[in-house]
Inverse folding.
C-alpha cells in the first residue's frame, strides 16, 4: 500500500507542529523540510516525534558528506528516515545505512540534481537504503515545460522502491499511485491550501480509493 507523506517547508517549529496537527489524521509520514531543519535545528525533529509518536518522521537533511555522523544526529533526535543526496559518493550513503541499521531506522536517497535518476536509484538500492526519492525540486518545477509525468515514468522504469516528490496533487495522485511508488510526497498541495486538513484528506481518500 502506498503511503502519503506531507512535506512541511515552513521555518518555525510552532508553525510546523500546527500544520502537522491539522493533517496528521490523513498522512503516514511527516517530513521536516531542509529549510525548517536549518532554521530550527534537530530539536524540531524531537518536537515533532514527541507530538506524533505514531507517525513516521522524515528528516530531509540532504546530507552530502559525513553520512554516518549526520544520520546518527537525525536518528538520535527521533527521525525514522533521513535523506542523503544521490549525487554523493557511495561511501556517504553506506555510512548513513550503517547508522540506520544501528538505530533500526531508514535511509532515503534524494535524487534532486541527479541526471539519470533511474540508474542511480538502482545503484543505491543495492547499498541498503529504504527507498529512493525521485525528486524534482522547487527550482526544477518552476522551469518552463516541467511535468511530474517524468517522475511517474521513471518510477515505472526503476523497478526498486521509490517515492515521488515534485508537484504531487489531487489531479495526478492517481497516476502516482499507479506508478508503483511506495510513497507519494505532497508539499504545497497541502500546506499552501486554504484548508490544509481538507486537502490532506482529499489526497488520502484518492490514494486509498
Amino acid at each position: 500500500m502506498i503511503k502519503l507523506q506531507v512535506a512541511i517547508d515552513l521555518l518555525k517549529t510552532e508553525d510546523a507542529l500546527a500544520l502537522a496537527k491539522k493533517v496528521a489524521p490523513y498522512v503516514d509520514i511527516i517530513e521536516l523540510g531542509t529549510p525548517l531543519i536549518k532554521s530550527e535545528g534537530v530539536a524540531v525533529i524531537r518536537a515533532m516525534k514527541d507530538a506524533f509518536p505514531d507517525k513516521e518522521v522524515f528528516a530531509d537533511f540532504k546530507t552530502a558528506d559525513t553520512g554516518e555522523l549526520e544520520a546518527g544526529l537525525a536518528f538520535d533526535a527521533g527521525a525514522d528516515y533521513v535523506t542523503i543526496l544521490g549525487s554523493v559518493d557511495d561511501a556517504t550513503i553506506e555510512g548513513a545505512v550503517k547508522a540506520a541499521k544501528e538505530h533500526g531506522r531508514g535511509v532515503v536517497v534524494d535524487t534532486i540534481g541527479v541526471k539519470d535518476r533511474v540508474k542511480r536509484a538502482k545503484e543505491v538500492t543495492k547499498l541498503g537504503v529504504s527507498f529512493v526519492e525521485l525528486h524534482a525540486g522547487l527550482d526544477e518545477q518552476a522551469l518552463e515545460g516541467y511535468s511530474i509525468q517524468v517522475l511517474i515514468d521513471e518510477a515505472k522504469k526503476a523497478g526498486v522502491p521509490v517515492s515521488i516528490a515534485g508537484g504531487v496533487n489531487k489531479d495526478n495522485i492517481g497516476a502516482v499511485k499507479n506508478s508503483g511508488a511506495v510513497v507519494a510526497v505532497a508539499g504545497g498541495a497541502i500546506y499552501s491550501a486554504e484548508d490544509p486538513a481538507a486537502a490532506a484528506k482529499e489526497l488520502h481518500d484518492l490514494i486509498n480509493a
